[in-house]
Amino acid sequence: MRNAERVGGVGRRRAIVVGGGIGGLAAGIALTRGGWEVKVLERAAAFGEVGAGLSLWPNGLRALDALGVGNRVREQALAETQAGIRNKSGRWLARTDSRELARRFGPVVMIHRARLSEILRAALPPGTLFADTEVIRAGLVGRQVEVEHGAGVLRADLLVAADGIGSTVRRSLWPQAPAPRYAGCTAWRLVVDTGRRVPAGGVSWGRGEGAGMAPLPDGRTYFFCVADAPEGQRSPGNELAELRRRFGHWHDPIPRLLAAADEETVLRHDIFALPPLATFVTGRAALLGDAAHAMTPNLGQGANQALEDAVTLAACLDAHTGVESALAAYDRYRRPRTQWIARRSQRIGSVAQWHSAPATAVRDLTLRLLPNSAFLNAFTPVLRWQPPDHDNLSAAHTRP
Length: 400
Hints:
Blueprint: E1 14-18, H1 22-33, E2 37-41, E3 53-56, H2 58-66, H3 70-76, E4 78-79, E5 83-87, E6 92-96, H4 98-104, E7 109-112, H5 113-122, E8 129-130, E9 135-141, E10 144-149, E11 152-156, E12 158-161, H6 168-173, E13 181-192, E14 202-205, E15 209-215, E16 221-228, H7 239-247, H8 254-260, E17 267-273, E18 281-282, E19 285-287, H9 290-293, H10 302-319, H11 323-352, H12 357-369, H13 372-383
Parallel strand pairs: 1-2, 1-12, 2-8, 5-14, 12-19
Antiparallel strand pairs: 3-7, 4-7, 5-6, 9-10, 10-11, 13-16, 13-17, 14-15, 15-16, 18-19
């Protein structure tokens, strides 16, 4: 990986991807496969992902198949066999029929984010990745795009902003876009090694609090918690002690996971979401992933939607002769779907975080009475996604 200031050479179709996370790497792969000369710029000193797990749903796996890395990901992932929603005492409120879900849509798998990043980086040609390159400003110059970074200026025919919810590119080129909004809750994430794999994943709902877990392929467990809290609040002691205070009396194996956890592995981040944007594109620039539609994590679709974005963007560019018309098609396809999923995720998060004892009692009873088929049917519009083909990309797409 080199610094972008040393990049030379002129390509026929050049693209700059700002952001080297999952969405940015996927965009780099998709564009490279479409014949573009790509530079992926990452502000961090090295490419990689923080230590946390990631659920890849059938739609996300189809996107990875379209990128040519699906089988490699499956080799490094673990299929989820049991999941659902429990209360804090461990009683199942709703179970996911994993076999039926896999039969209808394909499996759901768990992978460590760092491992997925490694797989995506390995699929890019040498000379594509440029770490330690922080973009300061982006602009449109005639029929080109321009990014200014710490060591100079780069120009290209296409700019893809995959630089997250606080996107510098979005602030530069979408100055009227609404700022991210605090969702009212904070989240802790960690990976725990208890010496044995947890038997089942899923989430557990309390009153204004929740926890979740999922087994990882290496035998460790991805564990996360969420709680309503003022924005920016941090624990006076350490975060692991706060987790033990809040969740140490919840059902097994949560106390066991917390007992085995290491304070240094605990990540805490407030949850923000991006209000709906009027467009994902301007000129020859496009937003992708969290830069376009950052959503709450309640549906586990953030990374999966970024993967869909990358595949769809490249397919639109392949199907249209002009970059602007291709980006207009990308916006028609991606914006309605991702904003619909973001709204649904926010609604689920609101219900999961209810405080009132009577309201949560009704919520839990309702979940217990619903048939398993209701959950699969509710997920159908999300999971049935297929990579777009060349023939239908010129038509507007407004359904989820």
